[in-house]
Amino acid sequence: MNIIYEDNHLIIINKAAGELSQSDKTKDISLVDQLKNYLKFKYNKKGNAYLGLVNRLDRPTSGLLIFSKTSKSLARMNDLQKNRKIKKTYYAITEKKPNKASGKLTNFLKKNQIKNKSFVVDESDVKSKRAVLNYKMIKKLENYFLLEIILETGRHHQIRCQLSHIGCPIKGDVKYGAKRPNKDRSICLHSNKIEFIHPVTKKELTITAQPPNSNIWSL
C-alpha cells in the first residue's frame, strides 16, 4: 500500500495492479480494509475508523485512488466528482495505433452485469450512458503505443471499452480484445494524475503517481 498524500481530510494512494479497491465477492482484503486498520493503529482509535472511497479503479488497473477520512470531506468530494470538477489523466498502453494521433471519443455505453463488461450501444438504448474521453498518442513503444487519456465522464470500464471499440485494446486486457494477458494479470492502464480543489482547505491540488515498475512501463 503506497500512500502518496495524506492530511486530516483525505488519503490518496498509488494503487498497485491487482489490489482490490473495496470488498467484493472474492472476500479478499481490500484497500478500504487495510487503510481502516492503518488509521486505527496510527490514531490509536478504540472503535472502527471512518473511511470513504471517492473514486474506483478496476482491480487490474493501477494508479490514484482517493479516500476521505471524514463524512464531510466525502460528501464534498462526491459533489466535485458529480460535477466533473476532478480532472483525471490516465496512461494506456495499447496494442494498436489509433487512426488519428489525438481526438475525442463519444460513445453510449451499456453495462452487462452478468459479464461485468460494458458495450458500445446505440444512443437510443434507454439504459445506455454517454461516455466521453480525450486521447493523445505520446510515444511509440516498440510493438505498442502509449496514450494519454483525459476523462470527461466516469463510466464502467469506460477507457477499456472505448479504446477497444476503435480497435486499440489495452495491452493485457483480454476481456476487451487484447491478444494475450499480462503475466501478472494486470492491464496496462494507469491513473497518472488528478487535479481538484481541496474540499476543506480550498487549495488547488495536483497529485501524480508513478506507473508500475515493470519492463513495459519503463520504456
Instruction: Write the H/E string, N to C.
Output: EEHEEHEEEEEHEEH
The count of DSSP E runs of length 2 or more, i.e. the number of strands, is: 11
* Percentage of β-strand residues: 35-45%
The CATH superfamily label reads Pseudouridine synthase
Specify Rg, calculated over alpha carbons: 18 Å
Helix content bin: 10-25%
Total DSSP helices: 4
Number of domains: 1
Question: How far is the first residue's CA from the last residue's CA?
Answer: 24 Å
CATH domain class:
Alpha Beta
Low-confidence stretches: none
CATH architecture: 2-Layer Sandwich
Characterise this structure:
By secondary structure, this protein is α+β, with helices and mostly antiparallel strands. It has a single domain (3-218), classed as Pseudouridine synthase (2-Layer Sandwich). The protein contains four helices and eleven strands; from the N terminus they run ββαββαβββββαββα. It has helices at residues 31-42, 71-82, 158-165, 215-218, and strands spanning 3-6, 10-15, 52-53, 62-68, 87-94, 102-112, 117-121, 129-141, 144-151, 189-197, 204-208. Strands 1, 2, 3, 4, 5, 6, 7, 8, 9, 10 and 11 form an eleven-stranded mixed beta sheet that branches. Strand 10 (189-197) and strand 11 (204-208) form a beta hairpin. The longest helix has 12 residues, at 31-42. It is globular and about 55 Å long. The mean pLDDT is 93.
